[in-house]
């Protein structure tokens, strides 16, 4: 028991001189702690920045692909509407409706191709 108390006292006494040196160099310790804190904060900021940039890139990629799909569907639609309208108009089955389908196809074609040009 006495040996354990002596070892404990020795273990507590050993760091005291280094603590005195550290207190004497308080400015260095403060500067070191400040530097460590700034490193942690800048690392956290960089991690958050990379994460949000990744989310932004994913969001923009999803919107771009969605618009490309819509433009592809619009192209298929205006071709089908134009052909159907042309057949109805030319055969006289329903010239009024055929003419409207052709006009609608032209308007859809203009919108789709302008959107495609804006998309790049």
Characterise this structure:
This protein is mainly alpha-helical and 120 residues long. It has one domain (23-119). Helix content is 94%, strand content 0%. The chain contains 4 helices and no strands. The protein has helices at 2-13, 15-24, 26-91, 95-119. It is rod-shaped. The N and C termini lie far apart (83 Å). 5% of the residues are buried.
Q: Which structural traits does this protein have?
A:
0% strand; rod-shaped; 120 residues
Percent in helix: over 70%
Amount of beta strand = under 5%
Which stretches of 5+ consecutive residues score pLDDT under 50?
A: none
Structural class: mainly alpha
Major sheet, described briefly?
none
The N- to C-terminal Cα distance equals: 83 Å
Shape: rod-shaped
According to DSSP, the number of beta strands is 0
Task: Please tally the helical runs, counting DSSP H or I stretches of 4 or more residues.
Answer: 4
Q: What string gives the helices and strands in order?
A: HHHH
- State the domain count: 1
The Rg value, from CA coordinates, equals: 38 Å
Average pLDDT across residues?
A: 85
